[in-house]
Write a structure and sequence with these properties.
- By secondary structure, the protein is an alpha/beta fold.
- 17% of the residues lie in helices and 23% in strands.
- The protein contains three helices and seven strands.
- The strands form three sheets. A three-stranded parallel sheet has the order 5-6-7, with no helix packed on it. The protein has a two-stranded parallel ribbon with strand order 1-4. A two-stranded antiparallel ribbon has the order 2-3.
- β2 and β3 form a beta hairpin.
- It starts with 7 loop residues before the first strand and ends in a 7-residue tail after the last helix.
Amino acid sequence: MTAKGYKVAVIKHAAHGYSRDIPGKDSFQHFAAGAQQVIVAGPDSITLHKRYSHAPNLQEVLELITEVDLIIVEGYKNEPGPKIEIVNSDDQVIKLTKSNELIAIISEEKLNYSMPCYNPAQLEQIAEFIAASFLTQQVKA
């Protein structure tokens, strides 16, 4: 999508926690010492590590994002919104989302469903489907 000129944000829901910082760095130590927010600013990026008293819901996370054309969310599967399910070929049984919000499936296996189904190698077609479904204007790359 970025190769097509779109500004994209990605949210990855780490339901079991994560560590983005590096132990021993000042920013890590500041947060470990109880700072409510730590910002690391570089020449072309900024990272915010913010403490919450609860697990932030998707809406709270979305409110942090500005100036993008598209937000891709991995996880938060129980939150409302259109869904594209990725089916792992290692799965013995395909467990598709039981939601009427499922709009497409990505799978290495050939599937026969009444919605768009893509192979993971079909990146261009997947990008075109997403752009046609959610982006109102074309940008010039």
